[in-house]
Amino acid sequence: METQKIYKKQEVIVEIFQRLSAMRDSKLCDITLVVDDVKIHAHKVVLAACSEFMKTLLTGDFKEYQQPTIKLSEINAEAANQVVNYMYGSSIKITIDNVFNILRISRMWFINTLLEECEQFLMKSLNISNALLIWTNFRLLDQNQIKTRAEDLLGCHFTTRNRNGYSAVPEKVDLITGTITSITSMNIARRDVALCGLDNFIYAIGGTDGNQALKYAERYNIHTNVWERLSDMNYPRKRAVAASVKGLLYVFGDLNNVGGAFNTISVYDPENKLWTDIPSEISFCCTEPLSITSDENMIYVFGKDNALGSGTNRVAVFNPETKTWNKDLIKSSISLTKTIYGAAFMKNFKSS
Q: Which residues are paired to 340 by β-bridges?
């Protein structure tokens, strides 16, 4: 005969944390964390229950931490707020832009469940476009598998060159060791191609065979060491540049304006294996190099805008979602007197 039964009410636990979270702006909060002048209100019991670090901090003999306000340093304020919300049962959005900040706090505060989530995210999202970022932060990671996988990808960045300037044999550059080795030959020897990494492929688009600009496009599989022929672009492009946003490739610019390439942006959909063209009110002249980079789903192109004259360089910002250029930035942008050979984004940069 059954004399007792234990009931577990998951709904009750969830409701309790929801109520605690709702009271974080009330007088019942007994601790405030301050990170870079950002105040995060909380309950000591919640922090201590979720973090061994916080438990030791709040219950130990540290006079400076017995105050109602505690200042924390060497962590990101936005990430700290997200982690505290996570302690109260809220979902947390992990992206390649915030994962290392969240990972750092998870490690410092001994929140193992969130630490594992960050490591799983890194393993799933690792590709050639973020491998260098992940590898440089590998000391934060417990999983050597992530470091090794990043190193494998870093060894697959390549360039195409030889003494005559035309080559079908790309060279793999290992960014860690600095060694250069040849990989499988491209199908057509050419130069002045637009290169772009997306997922586990490196795309080589357009270029010239020495006589004319090409519509040709192919991609290199870094795992199988095989080049795959893609459908041709609608317009030939030489000295173009390419960037990827949300799984699509965007190709800008041309040297010779053959067939209207100046006034269009070529877009490739790898899933449907289809090229389309977007009309562009800005056209870039590639008599000198163009540079391109992307950040937060926006594409930044540095180079000569034909409308400004042959001697003027500037930056223009393209929004792939609206398929338009940022006109406000275009009007206010300062002309660049020098050719821009490369461009990259740096997060949280502070000038001295």
A: none
**CA dist., res. 166 & res. 202, Å (int):** 19
The domain defined by 176-332 folds into: Neuraminidase (2.120.10)
What is the C-alpha separation between 307 and 293, in angstroms, rounded? 22
pLDDT, tens only, 200-221 = 898 999 988 878 889 999 999 9
Q: Where are the domains of the chain?
A: 1-92, 176-332
Q: Per residue, what are the HEC states of 193-234?
A: CEEEEECCEEEEECCECCCCEECCEEEEECCCCEEEECCCCC
pTM of the full structure: 0.54
| Same fold for the pair 1-92 and 176-332 | no
33 near 70, Cβ under 8 Å?
Answer: yes
Nearest to 202 by CA among 256, 156, 248: 156
CATH 3.20.20.70 fits 1-92, yes or no: no
pLDDT in tens, 139-181: 545 566 777 777 666 655 444 444 344 455 676 766 556 566 7
Give 84's Cβ-side CA count (13 Å radius): 25
Phi/psi of residue 341, nearest 5 degrees: -90, -15
Residue 261 DSSP label:
G
Residue showing tokens 């234990």: 6
